[in-house]
Amino acid sequence: MRSTSSKNRTRRAAKPAAALLAAALALALTGCGGGGNKSSNDGGSSGSSGSVKLPKLNGQTLEVAAVWTGAEQDNFMKVMDEFKKRTGAKVNFVPTGNNTSTFLGTKIQGGQPPDVAFLPQVGVLHQFADKGWLKPLGADAKAQLEKNFSKGWGDLGAWKGKQYGVYAKAANKSLVWYNTKAFEAAGITQAPKTWKDFLSTAQTLSDAGSPAVSVGGADGWTLTDWFENVYLSQAGPEKYDQLAAHKIKWTDPSVKDALTTLAQLWGKNDLIAGGTKGALNTEFPKSVTQTFSGSTPAAMVFEGDFVAANINGDTKAKLGTDAKVFPFPAVGSQAPVVSGGDVAVALKDNKGAQALLTFLASTDAAEIWAAQGGILSPNKEMDQSKYKDAITAQIAKQLLAAGDNFRFDMSDQAPAAFGGTAGIGEWKDLQDFLRNPKDVAGAQQKLEADAAKAYAAG
């Protein structure tokens, strides 16, 4: 369920982005210092001095729904504080939980949709648009989008010739964050560049007494990200695109290879913090905090750039000093570059919803949000010095420099019933595989059965 434009975008080569990622993170690892704040902004007006024009909303209350909790939610509300200041609106935030499409679908069908929602899956945008649940962007929002975003990011928010969304928040999901003290204690001086080196590093850390890898297996979406990085690097971009569109089956030998590779880590309890059982009971935020806090912290945690928000908000670790990052290790000839994002869409046809989308597409909002930490913006016109820390600034620079040469999160391209819902589909199937990594064939069969059903239903 992808638009032609999205499909064409994802077919472009991933190699340039992989090289840019390695170069950018090398700079971050060697020259970021203590991760100091590069911006004087802390939720106030951006350096562009309110360049985007917004209407006065005279106390109108807007409801905004998104999956974020904790530090991510708090950081977003700093952006909303500025929106409220400029427009006079009130903003209520409603957390959707991981089942975003189900939560919103129920609200819409009950006649009480939020004004604006952030959708974490491209497939959900397509489904909602087909149902007539989304309102197209107004002229002002479209003008900001066209001015500040590349065509690739604009295309991701469009469907069947209509522009519905703004990707105000992006993610680089090909990163491994590590506890520098754990690496030093184990005598590790270089970050691993290949999967073989990654497994060797994990074993060295484990032997030195550190839980090697923290896995947030209670949240199935983190496991899809593990799979996608391994699959993209090992099978290559063409196969990735085919599997994302379900043009090849999950019983394909390339999927077997990727699951077998994952089992090299997931099948070793001594390399996973808390073992398999512990991983399945660990939600994403805890997977970060148990890497950078506690008496026996884990050494590494895989996930996107948004990990920085959890490090900053939930631990005392300092980015660039206590917490550093390296690219996801190459399984094949190239390191993978997988991206994701949250697209803001209007579910009500009113002036307030369109004003909020216009603001979210502006450099003003992007700079305020970036100053909080833990976010990447695809906004190419924003002042890059507004990022809170040097690591995030370098990762953002890499994302922009890569243009469209990356692959969008595979599960986010799938129908929500397969790639975006807790307790069913790919999320559950990979949790079951984490529970029993020896059953590669069984996992493939279950993944294919669930994928076939979801794609057939649309």
UniProtKB/TrEMBL annotation:
Organism from which the protein derives: Streptomyces guryensis
Coiled coil (residue ranges): none
Keyword tRNA processing assigned: no
Keyword Nuclease listed: no
Ranges annotated as spanning the membrane: none
Protein name: ABC transporter substrate-binding protein
InterPro entries: Bact_solute-bd_prot1, SBP
Domain of life, per lineage: Bacteria
Keyword terms: Signal, Transport
Family: Belongs to the bacterial solute-binding protein 1 family.
Annotated signal peptide: 1-28
